[in-house]
Amino acid sequence: MNNILREVINIVIRIELRQHVGAPCKPIVEIGKSVKKGELIAVPTGLGANIHSSVYGKVTSIDDTAINIEADEQQPEEYVKIQDTLTYLEAIEQAGVVGAGGAGFPTHVKLNTKLPGGTVIANAAECEPILEHNMKFMEEHPDIIVRGLKYMVEITGAAKGYIAIKPHHTKAVVALGKACKGEPNISLKYLPNIYPAGDERVIVREILGVELKPGALPLEANTVISNVETIKNVVAAIEDRRPVITKDITVAGRVHGAENVGRVFLDVPIGMPIEKYIEEAGGIIEPYGEIVLGGPFTGKHGEKDSPVVKTLGGILVSMPFPQTHKKLGIIVCECGAQEQRLKEIAAKMGAEVVAEERCKRMVEVNGRYRCDLPGICPGQASTVLKLKSQGAEAVLISNCED
Ligand code: SF4
Prior knowledge:
The structure is a single chain. With 402 residues, this protein is of the alpha/beta class. It folds into 4 domains: 12-71, CATH 2.40.50.100; 88-239, 3-Layer(aba) Sandwich (Rossmann fold); 246-317; 327-397. Helices cover 23% and strands 24% of the residues. It has 10 helices and 21 strands. Helix 1 (88-94) crosses helix 7 (228-239), helix 3 runs parallel beside helix 5 and helix 4 (142-156) crosses helix 7 (228-239). The two termini are 41 Å apart. It binds iron/sulfur cluster. Iron/sulfur cluster binds at residues 196, 333-335, 359, 361-362, 371, 373-375, 377, 399-401.
């Protein structure tokens, strides 16, 4: 658990003040202050989660969005532990645990509920293609996921804990299966091999047989769902009093040494520039299109100096954008790139967006478009014809099916 990279010499790390759902945190350190690894450096002003330094170093600047820290040459493994707490939930809060699968919802808020007769589900789908760091962790440390689920079952008073995983991840399935042996309340449940099987409503439907309405939360099915890395961080907070100061990531795409199989880095210090891990994997293969932060479906544009944050999953280097210079129609879907992102990609292709449609399963709920039946995806032929009738010569589509 404590295999934190030590090579942070001569690096200024940038620890963002907003790495969670909610308002940015408020810094509680000043410029020039020496900080220790694990030291609390920013606190929430409302919904949010504590932020800690991931290195020993000196605060060089603070702006509206981040605290910059120049890392010391020496980076011992020891870290400042979170203070003693009376309950597991308080430990999770102190440690600043948030949804590590990308959502960033504060975990102490999510778990502050009672689920009599209900369930806690570990989301082990690792659904976005290419990403592999969750699988690697589960293959190597299945016992931690089982212990984490047991803590979460105890916190919520749930009856059972399930690990939702796709059966083709055989190594992780075997490892987790062994770790569940002798645990009467923890078991594996299988997800279909589709995208987006990791969507919470798909998990609730497939594992519990409950169809949640668009926009409804898993709580309505008497369950909470947490990504496996979030569960890893819950265990670290409770057992090691360790705050969230690292992130597991996958580097892939046009990167030497990571082109065909993604390269996984576990326990990367938060705030490190992502370029360090691209270089460590072997460096960018030129030419390339852009760096994507996250998975291929829902990731966003990043820069070489973008910092690692608590919700980062992937660092992907894309192929060069084909220069089509065509009139494009776009189809937006809840489980893929959103309208702005598709327009950004179209611009990089030198293309003009002349028409927009949504996947036909999208319905409006409280001013936001949601998928009616995630994972039960329709063909898009009629939508494509609509776009064509509006002048589109080609279609850029964010969904998974067509
Ligand atoms: S039905 Fe459409 S919006 Fe829903 S998951 Fe499938 S492609 Fe995405």
